[in-house]
Task: inverse folding
């Protein structure tokens, strides 16, 4: 899998990761965790490392913690989660609970989820980063309606990462958020790379366009992920899945070098009409 550097440090990050929303919200029992162990094995085998979670995702953090409970598995994982509450004390409690659920002493990326009370949480994240408890600080959102506020927060200069929605049918970030991330030297995680309105489901029954093999795409998921990765400011796409087969298929999109953004100028109509 290809990698791209985290601008703050130059650390290489594989371009396809795994989101845990819905798919990892299971009881931490052997039977429930077994398919998810396959998901992480598929990610690691393909060269991926990024696993993104949140307290908002129900039992997902605990499931991830149970699946990376050895030093070797933890070492293979770039572990990202979020704080999603108001108030300093509540934020500290929630983040401590995330450390416990994830069974780790260090979280690679702690993000302020959906901008919730970011001014309160940011000083704590700075303190914990300085102490070595977290390695990177991020901010997230998933709707274009929040971009004005998100841009203002990004301009504070205190964040290493921004996580945002971007897909063939949700393209607003390309005009505003991605250029600002490049300017501010922030890594970009892309959530919802398959679109927010069932884009991938709508494409499954359609034949692949004739140009798909030219970019090494063997499925519509490949095409959509290649579209996202065509933006040079994007560091890693994190489609969510609880299927090992889907994880392996998603990871394959990170192998070819993606075409430049201009490639899509005459091809988007094949995807979104």
Result:
């Amino acid at each position: 899998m290809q990698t791209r550097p985290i601008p703050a440090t130059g650390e290489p990050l594989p371009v396809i990761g795994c989101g845990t929303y819905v798919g990892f919200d299971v009881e931490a029992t052997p039977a429930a965790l077994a398919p998810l162990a396959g998901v992480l094995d598929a990610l690691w085998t393909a060269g991926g490392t990024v696993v993104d979670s949140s307290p908002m995702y129900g039992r997902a953090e605990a499931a991830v913690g149970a699946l990376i409970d050895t030093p070797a598995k933890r070492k293979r994982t770039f572990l990202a989660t979020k704080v999603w509450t108001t108030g300093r004390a509540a934020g500290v409690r929630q983040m401590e609970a995330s450390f416990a659920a994830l069974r780790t002493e260090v979280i690679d990326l702690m993000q302020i989820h959906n901008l919730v009370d970011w001014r309160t949480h940011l000083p704590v994240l700075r303190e914990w980063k300085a102490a070595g408890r977290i390695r990177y600080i991020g901010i997230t959102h998933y709707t274009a309606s929040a971009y004005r506020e998100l841009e203002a927060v990004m301009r504070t200069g205190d964040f290493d990462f921004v996580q945002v929605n971007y897909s063939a049918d949700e393209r607003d970030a390309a005009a505003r958020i991605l250029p600002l991330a490049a300017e501010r030297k922030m890594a970009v995680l892309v959530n919802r790379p398959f679109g927010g309105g069932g884009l991938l489901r709508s494409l499954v029954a359609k034949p692949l366009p004739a140009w798909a093999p030219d970019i090494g795409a063997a499925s519509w998921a490949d095409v959509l992920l290649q579209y996202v990765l065509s933006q040079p400011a994007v560091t890693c796409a994190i489609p969510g899945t609880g299927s090992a087969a889907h994880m392996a298929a998603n990871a394959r999109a990170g192998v070819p070098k993606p075409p430049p953004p201009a490639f899509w100028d005459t091809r988007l109509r094949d995807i979104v009409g």
User: Anything to note?
Assistant: The domain at 11-272 is CATH 3.20.20.100 (TIM Barrel). Residues 225 and 253 are 6 Å apart (CA to CA). DSSP finds eleven helices and ten strands in the chain.
